[in-house]
Amino acid sequence: MDLVKNHLMYAVREEVEILKEQIRELVEKNSQLERENTLLKTLASPEQLEKFQSRLSPEEPVPETPQAPEAPGGSAV
């Protein structure tokens, strides 16, 4: 009985380590994508953001992004 228990515990520990590594990789990838998304939002013009937001379905709320101050003449700087 101890042999079966030890084998199962070893298998479970091994699986836990694999899952922990996958979680670390996914957290890292998520952080990278969040940074990329933030960068793209800051580089996008207000017109591009508006066009993108209009394509989203109404059920998906879009967080407000800070707008770039407008220069005289109505164009963003």
Automatic annotation (TrEMBL):
Keywords: Cytoplasm, Nucleus, Phosphoprotein. GO terms for biological process: negative regulation of activation-induced cell death of T cells; regulation of transcription by RNA polymerase II. This is TSC22 domain family protein 3. It is found in: Cytoplasm; Nucleus. It comes from Odobenus rosmarus divergens (Pacific walrus). One of its GO terms (cellular component) is cytoplasm. Belongs to the TSC-22/Dip/Bun family. Residues 41-77 are annotated as: Disordered. It comes from the Eukaryota.
